[in-house]
Amino acid sequence: MNTLKSKQLFEQAQKSIVGGVNSPVRAFKSVGGHPIFMRSAKGAYLYDEDKNRYIDLINSWGPMLLGHANDAVIEAVQAVLKDSFSFGAPTSAEVEIAELIKSMMPNIEMLRMVNSGTEATMAAIRVARGFTKKDKIIKFEGCYHGHADSFLIAAGSGAATMGIPDSQGVTSKTAQDTLTVPYNDLGALEAILITNAGMVAAIILEPVVGNMGCVLPKEGYLQGVRALCDEHNVLLIFDEVMTGFRLAKGGAQALFGVKPDLTTLGKIIGGGLPVGAYGGRTDIMSMVAPLGPVYQAGTLSGNPVAMASGLATLKQIKASTAIIEKANHNAQQIADGMRIINSKLGLNYTINRIGSMFTLFFTDRPVHNFNDAKSSDTKLFAAYFHEMLKRGVYLAPSQYESLFVSMAIQDADIQHILEAHEDSMSLIQDQN
Ligand code: HOZ
Predict the structure, then answer these.
(1) If you ran DSSP here, which 8-state letter would residue 131 be given?
(2) Nearest CA to ligand 1 atom 8
(3) Distance 25 CA to ligand 1 centre (A)
(4) 48, 56, 239, 413: which is the annotated catalytic residue?
(5) 295 catalytic residue (yes or no)
(6) Cα distance between residue 304 and residue 313, in whole Å
(7) How far is the CA of 396 from the centre of ligand 1 (A)?
């Protein structure tokens, strides 16, 4: 596969963009080689600058559940473009999307639109602190909630991939207010709540983790976290930036039947444009300005073009259960097919899947938390990643990310992915 233009663009990019990329994992640092520069995408496929085609298993890290360049979304965006790109004043589309989100997410009574998942989580903990008048938050090792200071402590995703889970530049005072415990361990959570009694404003977690690879909550775990929050008078924040509108129309909270106090959203909510949101109980959200004393604002929040893209995406998801079902079916076929091939090759690697999210971990160990995920052979993952890329399958360039499957993938694509998997696995096993 010829990727010369990508290589040249990366060399050029490094002269003006930090590391040649605008988000660290994209640099391919942990897998080696150069990133692929994309030019266009349609449905299940990405096309790069050298005109190579890839079946996309990242889907912009989650937003493109419908597949790329969905016709109804394009039409909706084109329709608003002629009316202005931004007003910095309220629009009817913002009211419409707020009502639509409330109708889908079971525990959002009031919400605020922002421009990214990072903004949403950053604001949610500020509100939680303002409401409870407490400073500390608890997050889980390997969970990632965007790049705000309070979350870059034992952080997953790119921070873990780059080996900087505790980023420099975060003051020690900020870090002291973020307590961390292992995911899926109620005992550890209870212990830290007892030690810090009366000081914890909120527990924030990904109800299904996507940022240490895909890690599922153990049976009863989310219910246990909710019960501990109630017992210790702590707010529960579900970061559903990845899982919202994907695992179910109402996200993981609908799927598992657990009620968070606040929810953060991103990715699918913008249909590929930069949108986030946070919301929850009316009494808590009423703390936010202009109603209350917690400040949060944004010039481009509720941007009309982004709202049009989000609305056109969410309306389709709300109207048809077939979308989520098809994406789930695709992911199941791929993950199950990989399991069968692995066992034929005598390999016992862990594959975690739920709905249309999954990760193949290069470890024999069941993966329930970040320590388990870190037992993966990342060198082998890197070799596998490049073999898949050569065969036209675009995976996340890191072991510590979930894959996101779209509804646009068809049976022939699944066949292609599984053949690529078998060839790649056989080859890297022979070489190692
Ligand atoms: N940290 C993001 C995924 N969890 C990566 C986003 C990107 O590089 O585009």
Answers:
(1) H
(2) 23
(3) 6
(4) 239
(5) no
(6) 14
(7) 9
Angle at 72 between CA 68 and CA 75, to 5 degrees: 105
Check: CB of residue 405 under 8 Å from CB of residue 331.
Answer: yes
Contact indicator for 263, 125 with CB cutoff of 8 Å: no
> Residues near ligand 1 with C-beta < 6 Å?
23, 25-26, 61, 157-158, 211, 401
Residue 318 annotated as catalytic: no
Residue ranges of the chain assigned to CATH 3.90.1150.10: 4-69+321-431
- What is the model's pTM? 0.97
pLDDT digits (tens, 9 = 90+) for 192-251: 999 999 999 999 999 999 999 999 999 999 999 999 999 999 999 999 999 999 999 999
4-69+321-431 CATH: 3.90.1150.10
Q: For residue 427, give both structure tokens.
A: 């080859």
Domain 71-319 has CATH 3.40.50.300: no
Q: How far is the CA of 237 from the centre of ligand 1 (A)?
A: 21
- The CA distance from 86 to 66, in Å, is 26
- Cβ distance 120 to 276 under 8 Å? yes
Nearest atom within ligand 1 for CA of residue 22: 8
Q: Spot the catalytic one: 29, 267, 326, 374.
A: 267
- The DSSP secondary-structure symbol of 244 reads B
> Which atom in ligand 1 lies closest to the alpha carbon of residue 242?
4
Q: What's the gap in Å between 375 CA and the centre of ligand 1?
A: 22
Long-range contacts of 175-180 (CB under 8 A, 24+ apart): 177/135, 177/136, 177/137, 177/150, 178/136, 178/137, 178/138, 178/139, 178/150, 178/151, 178/153, 179/136, 179/137, 179/138, 179/139, 180/138, 180/139, 180/140, 180/141, 180/153, 180/154
Partners of residue 352 on adjacent β-strands? 359
For 62, other C-beta atoms within 10 Å of its C-beta total: 25
Active site residue 261: no
CA-CA distances (angstroms) from residue 87 to 82, 277, 304? 13, 19, 8
Q: Rounded CA gap, 335 and 213, in Å?
A: 14
CATH 3.40.640.10, the chain: domain bounds: 71-319
Mutate to test the pocket of ligand 1, among 28, 61, 143 (most ligand atoms within 8 A of CB): 61
- Mind listing the pLDDT tens digit for each residue in 12-67? 999 999 999 999 999 999 999 999 999 999 999 999 999 999 999 999 999 999 99
